[in-house]
């Protein structure tokens, strides 16, 4: 019924698919295409999988801009939302590996101005694990501030924690990006921002098409992000009533709740009431919490390098695999396991104990890596869904298909 409703509310355009899968992964391609055929994926998407360092799945389909009938191509890129946080975490891991910082170091060791207003004891790890007590700023973040890293530095320095640092974890929706940017600027020997550091140390040397600060000349490749329709959200809730309860809890929460205050911290960046992230000026930001631009191939390629020891040592990788905090997140209001800028997830198979690592992004973006089996899995879409990871049926169908293929 939900498929019928969505089908009637959308202009019919021919389905479009591209890419390849290696032998043995046919069911992953079938699952990817079925998301479109069932109406679960009304816009466009891309999917990539590496297994033991080899790319075995690289797929794309749908439309980069449905209103313009612009198809999703091999080089189409899109806003990756909070999966960008994992990319930023990889940059911090590289700096740690180079001896430029330690996770247990105080932020103020490198950035003295940050110590003001009760933040003197905040460590780099607390920032990475969302334990700094700064899920939002009391100051309304203007466009002028957001586009000037010196103004953001001063705003962060002047802010006081909302909760005692180090005792609780509360998701730093946007502030994570500005905090990590300043940590990079204060520890990198060249004092580069996070976008430049990533571009020069990871993207360019490895031919990776992911950007934290997109050059305007690349805008023609960016997919148009589309907010979810009421019908689309209703269809997801019919599929999973737990999702409905989670959404109801969010909509009934106070405007003064930490989550809503973090999401509305800047009127210029808005994905709740309108979709401002299609603005090229926002794409140009070095905003490492939410506005990285890439596709599944580029996102998976980054973590294929990480997982296989090409950008950090085995010692650093072993550290990254150890969670830091496992408790209820006071912003997200759900149990989370975090550390070093990553989220940790239960194993897929019942007979395995190792945790998966990665990060979700708004609208059903996901990057996941399975260290034991050396699997990296990335999925991005420009059609927003109600939730992420286990709450996103599109992603779970693909993940289940992958692990089913691996068991054959």
UniProtKB/TrEMBL annotation:
Superkingdom of origin organism: Eukaryota
Signal peptide (residue range): none
Which Gene3D superfamilies has this protein been placed in? DD-peptidase/beta-lactamase superfamily
Q: Where is the Beta-lactamase-related domain?
A: 32-394
Name the InterPro entries on file. Answer: Beta-lactam-related, Beta-lactam/transpept-like, Beta-lactamase/esterase
User: Cross-referenced Pfam families, in alphabetical order?
Assistant: Beta-lactamase
Q: What is this protein called?
A: Beta-lactamase-related domain containing protein
